[in-house]
Amino acid sequence: MRHLLSASDLDLSQAVLILDTAAQMAATQAREIKKLPTLRGRTVVNLFFEDSTRTRISFETAAKRLSADVINFSAKGSSVSKGESLKDTALTLQAMGADAVVIRHQSSGAPHTLARAGWTDGAVVNAGDGMHQHPTQALLDAYTLRRHLVGDRGRADATGRDLAGVHVAIVGDVLHSRVARSNVQLLRTLGARVTLVAPPTLVPVGVDAWPAEVSYDLDDVLTTGPDAVMMLRVQRERMSSAGGGFFPSPLEYTRGYGLDARRLAMLPDHAVVLHPGPMNRGLEISADAADSPRAVIVEQVANGVAVRMAVLYLLLAGGEQAGRTTEGRADARTDETRVHA
Amino acid sequence: MTTYLLTGARLLGGDPTDVLVADGVVAALGARARDGGGQVVDADGLVLLPGLVDLHTHLREPGREDAETVESGTRAAALGGFTAVHAMANTTPAQDTAGVVEQVWRLGRDAGWCDVHPVGAVTVGLAGERLAELTAMARSAARVRVFSDDGKCVDDPVVMRRALEYVKAFDGVVAQHAQEPRLTQGAQMHEGVVSAELGLTGWPAVAEEAIVARDVLLAEHVGSRLHVLHVSTAGSVEIVRWAKARGIDVTAEVTPHHLMLTDELVRGYDPRYKVNPPLRTAADVEALREGLADGTIDTVGTDHAPHPREDKDCEWAAAAFGMTGLETALSVVQAVMVDTGRSTWADVARVMSGAPARIGRLTGQGRPIAVGEPANLTLVDPSARRVVVPEQQATASVNSPFAGSELPGRVVATFLRGRATVLDGALVEQGVHA
Q: Under a CB-based contact definition with an 8 Å cutoff, are residues A101 and A93 in contact?
């Protein structure tokens, strides 16, 4: 694995390896001295073009626990806000010797461009690009699901296991969500079944090609007894995109798609509630649901550090064991689609 | 002026014939051509077409000379086999006054590589609000007949109606960039399976089709002619087919890239494939080829849209829309239409020369190859194959979607009113400014 750009880069064995490695990392985090010497002397750059304190801190913590040097490069207050291009920023970081670039960007595909354009030799980790992908979020969600739902519901060792047979409902703004896109792909790779639940305006045209079922009715889906419900954040900043007007009012959205005490009670006893954060309490999730014992939302944050440690470790110190890069694939596709006949 | 004897040229792909080019016209055909002497151009196995006419280029001058100039763009045109090109109005300043269109027209005349016909803006500053002084542009030295806000849609139905009506006074035509703006706010690529996966805001087919449908009905209502630029969807082809069957005076264009490439190419987020209207699906490509073959689509226009390197050397969302096309258009049409048996070379002459000349009301272009006709001619070697290397092209920009692809066909010679602008596949520099 050379870069981690998309959840679709990972096959089953690679995904399970990351989850298993994350479990090992998590075990070290219970020790008094949490820091490992693994990435000493390596430099990890957090290149954030979009505000995201949570994800940046998570990656920063992960890199520091592995003893890497961390440089935080935020678009705000830097040359980026003076109009410097992604290319020049990347060349600058390359000149400074970045071993890994963790990039968050508002444009879908920016991490691909960074990885493929030859601007940097470092490993590129996608920390969220536009409406496209957020692969480490999907990995930490999968890790959390595995901990709770696999291996005698968390009582036995889940090492080496996937998520076969697990049913996950992903609820909310699927259209704009990189979390949903990453999760649909990774959960499918891990053998889980996914149902997307959203108002029709927040489901992308073309969703029929996704390996997921689609429902417009949350209550209906809850009665089928999903093992997990993943609530997506209503991204207020995206609600005016592409003409806006995706739903009539926040109140109507909450009535249809919010997770409240009544809906929480419909879930099977073993089911867990996830949310990538930050939450809009009272909009997509009520306080009853967010603070209930079934909510594993705070645990997701802790698991995020372990998963990101695993990803950085495998990319920078894991050699070939995590498998090949997917770079060849896009090129092959390019040739196929350039039909002459 | 040099006299040329083209020996063994296949006129519109037919049987080999000798052609004498003298005094700016086709002076003789067949056995009689040999009597005139002249410089021999071995055209054995080559196809002779009327000089190509492009209703749709962006030559970028004035304003964006870093991307293209009239000089560099018309060099590219000549190498591509064109003897006349229309230059779209989205320059800086916009071609919305007689002064600016005359400037562009003169730049073309001075460059001398092919005829340059500026397109007049429909509305002031291409803002879509009030009509530009269309009559002034029509009566200027540039004699503008094609009007377009290309790059932007004339979306206000009243403005569009007025424009369609108004240009009747001088037999003009409104060329519409069909894109409903509200439905395409922030749009980055074709809306469908690929956009859903890539997380790029979609440009739905209906945003084009809704405007095409509205405009053919408007054209019918006011009895005007309408030209639809860069038709890109199967639905638009259907609407134009319906309109023509109904007797509406509509013509339509397709670009080479929409005839060959699909939205699958966007998967690598390579901004070379970012274009407006966007690359569509394989089903759309098939419908466009069919429409071009059956005459529903009248012309191939390149929508040659050069951009400086920095506007493509970036992430997808920051990149400019557009692709170069003048030096690859004929090869693409050969690949997808001729080599597949869908069209003949006579059809190519129709869609790349005759029809666009007629729509633009050009005289002396797009004419049959016959004795006494102006010698605007293009000689093509259909058996050649070449790999596209943008850095070696004459256009000042390198944003070709065909970079690295092997395409069939090569323009061997281009004649503009009897003068060779291209010989042996290279520009003829000497005497150009004479």
A: yes
Q: Which residues contact B86 (CB under 8 A, 6 or more apart)?
A: B54, B55, B56, B57, B116, B117, B118, B119, B146, B360
Q: What is the pLDDT of residues A275-289, one digit of tens each?
A: 999 999 999 999 999
Q: Which tokens is B417 given?
A: 């009113």
Phi, psi of A207, rounded to the nearest 5 degrees = -65, -20
Helix axis angle for A297-316 and A53-65, nearest 10°, is 50
Q: Which residues of A touch B337 (CB under 8 A)?
A: none
- CATH architecture, domain B4-47+372-384+393-427: Roll (2.30)
Closest CA to A105 of A73, A130, A69: A130
For A108, the closest of B200, B268, B405 (CB atoms) is B200
* pLDDT of res. B238: 98
Contact A107 B317 (CB under 8 A): yes
Delimiting residues of CATH 2.30.40.10 domain(s) in chain B: 4-47+372-384+393-427
Task: Tell me the sheet residues that pair with A248.
Answer: none
Per the CB < 8 A criterion, the answer to whether B150 and B88 are in contact is: yes
Restricting to A residues 241-280, those with a Cβ less than 8 Å away from any Cβ of B are: 241-243
Is A104 a catalytic site residue?
yes
Measured between CB atoms, which of A133, A205, A330 is closest to B267?
A330
Q: Do A308 and A262 share a domain, yes or no? A: no
- What gap in Å lies between CA B87 and CA B94, rounded to an integer? 11
List CB contacts (< 8 A) between A132 and chain B.
Answer: 198-200
DSSP lists the bridge partners of residue B250 as B226
For residue B424, the one-letter residue type is D
Closest CA to B128 of B67, B174, B189: B174
Q: What is the pTM of this model?
A: 0.92
Task: Determine, for residues B183 and A243 on separate chains, whether the beta-carbon distance falls below 8 Å.
Answer: yes
Residue A185 lies in a domain: yes
Number of A/B CB contacts below 8 angstroms equals 119
**ipTM of the prediction:** 0.88
pLDDT at B350 over 60: yes
Q: What is residue B430's predicted lDDT score, i.e. its pLDDT?
A: 65
Residues of B with CB under 8 A from a CB of A: 182-183, 185-188, 191-202, 204, 260-262, 264-265, 267-270, 282, 285, 310, 313-318, 335-336, 339-340, 405
* pLDDT above 60: residue A79: no
Question: What token pair was written down for B87?
Answer: 């230059």
CA distance B147 to B140: 14
Set A3, A42, A65, A104: catalytic member: A104
